[in-house]
Amino acid sequence: xxxxxxxxxxxxxxxxxxxxxxxxxxxxxxxxxxxxxxxxxxxxxxxxxxxxxxxxxxxxxxxxxxxxxxxxxxxxxxxxxxxxxxxxxxxxxxxxxxxxxxxxxxxxxxxxxxxxxxxxxxxxxxxxxxxxxxxxxxxxxxxxxxxxxxxxxxxxxxxxxxxxxxxxxxxxxxxxxxxxxxxxxxxxxxxxxxxxxxxxxxxxxxxxxxxxxxxxxxxxxxxxxxxxxxxxxxxxxxxxxxxxxxxxxxxxxxxxxxxxxxxxxxxxxxxxxxxxxxxxxxxxxxxxxxxxxxxxxxxxxxxxxxxxxxxxxxxxxxxxxxxxxxxxxxxxxxxxxxxxxxxxxxxxxxxxxxxxxxxxxxxxxxxxxxxxxxxxxxxxxxxx
Length: 384
What we know:
- This protein is an alpha/beta fold.
- 37% of the residues lie in helices and 14% in strands.
């Protein structure tokens, strides 16, 4: 039976993770080795040095590639290391079109590091495909999108952007961290590269840092392998093992994240002290229909407007079950103030332009009993 005819949950548990042929261990062993015994001159058993490849990391890369519907995966030490590998294909004078509401760390890296090496950027609202089309130049070598965006949950029509990119022979990369391959698979919609911070939903337990690029392009795969070998920013065997452990339960976790997310979003949307809730699963979301077309669920990420920094701070200080923390995608509910965490590196003017206010609070709904999550938010909102 091939992976192409097996269900998502089955692939999450088995693809890339066959029992160890020597011992029969059902979990991939943790290969804590830097080097491997060679069988002769220029002859090895498939591995020679762990910077180039490691059996534990290989298993993770195969697993995520299968779930995303790609041919190869390439794991890196963090989500930002994966983004860094993505742009190594670029040269001085090359041009990138990107979303104007990317994760703050990505924007910081592009503007404060990559731009200094002669790469040019156009920042556009990718929720309107015409903006992408107008921004393309003869020197454009990559279009990079994030959908939904962090934290305001603005969607980009992946298929529409992919069609534009194919017409101009430009690779399209999509950050799929918020949805995971369970709810959204950009490669199936025409993207060439899908990127994840594996730290988030793929790991799911807030204990494993990593990033990954998945592609079906042999040329791009060769580029990413070369970057792994040359720069060495690869994912360690232990982190790979942690994320593999998380991937096994991805499907069941995402179903609960989604169920809880819908309930919490509905509660917040009706609360008299909340000004606005950004969640694609709400019928009031301006891109609700697009969400239903290109996603298989709505997930657990959302933002809500409290009206002021003072109100946001009161809520964050009063929550008891929800944890005030910067990350997302863990089994625990995480809540944060976007202006001073994920987008602190963006100027106040730019945050205002894209809609992130001092009262914006981001919520990553966990898999606790949803009544307890709502109860904690309800008592915290009493502080306003």
